[in-house]
Specification:
The protein is of the alpha+beta class. Helix content is about 20%, strand content about 25%. The protein has a single domain, classed as 4-Layer Sandwich (CNF1/YfiH-like putative cysteine hydrolases), CATH 3.60.140.10. A 6-stranded mixed sheet has the order 1-2-3-14-7-4, with no helix packed on it. Strands 5-6-9-8-10-13 form a 6-stranded mixed sheet. The protein is globular, with a radius of gyration of 16 Å. The mean pLDDT is about 95.
């Protein structure tokens, strides 16, 4: 399995599923949200965001299930796509076993992580807060519950574009918080969120982990970045669904 272009975006096939990580390209929003801004909580015109989401849904052929992201560890289990276009619960991962439902998270430096296998799929919003809270382990547990138990070794994961160790500088307290993951997660004053996510997936028993190895902060032509753009920016998405 490997990442490949999917129109303006990036896709990977996982066991029984597909994940797409969007770029900022292909939408209708003007600057500073140009152009495929999917974030309904930004200051972009809501009509632009709705049009962008409709374009993406039509391109992927799925409806979206999503939550209000709060940098925690809760996992929302979706039985259907959102009928009103509004998130109904607070959670930082969405899991589903329903065909035609795309589990969606929004990011702009936090790391989107897809997990699939055994007839279920999930997408995780993994910033430092969610990683510290244990959102990866909670997602794997939710996946196993959806698929009737068994081993997490049948699951595979894909880590999408997010803040890279090249750019993601943090303070001493946060570096100390993640010190148990080894010296490899540090690069000077920076930390590697994607490597932390990988370590957590492996600890949870996920057999295969793929990494797009793309940094949102140093790729302004491709991705929104909350840190680079000082909070005035759009949101890209990670979407995963059963195939």
């Amino acid at each position: 399995m490997s990442f490949r272009p999917h129109g303006d975006h990036l896709a990977i096939d996982l066991p029984g599923a597909r994940a797409v990580f969007t770029t900022r390209r292909g939408g209708v929003s003007p600057m500073p949200y140009a152009s495929l801004n999917l974030g309904i909580t930004t200051a972009d015109d809501p009509r632009h965001v709705a049009a962008n989401r409709a374009r993406l849904a039509a391109e992927l052929g799925v409806g979206f299930a999503f939550a209000r992201q709060v940098h925690g560890a809760a996992v929302a289990v979706a039985r259907s796509a959102a009928a009103t276009g509004e998130a109904l619960v607070e959670a930082d991962a969405v899991a589903t076993a329903v065909p035609g439902v795309g589990a969606l998270v929004l990011v702009a430096d936090c790391v989107p992580v897809a997990v699939a296998g055994g007839g279920a799929v999930a997408m995780v919003h993994a910033g430092w807060g969610g990683l510290a809270a244990g959102v990866i382990a909670e997602t794997v547990r939710a996946m196993l519950d959806l698929t009737g138990g068994g081993s997490a070794a049948r699951l595979a994961a894909a880590i999408g574009p997010g803040a890279g160790p090249c750019c993601y500088e943090v303070g001493d307290e946060l570096r100390e918080w993640f010190a148990g993951y080894g010296r490899e997660i540090r690069r000077g004053p920076n930390i590697d969120l994607k490597l932390i996510a990988r370590r957590q997936l492996e600890t949870a028993g996920v057999a295969q982990v793929h990494d797009a190895e793309l940094c949102t902060i140093c790729s302004p032509e491709l991705f929104f970045s909350h840190r680079r753009d000082r909070g005035v920016t759009g949101r890209q998405a990670g979407v995963a669904w059963l195939t």
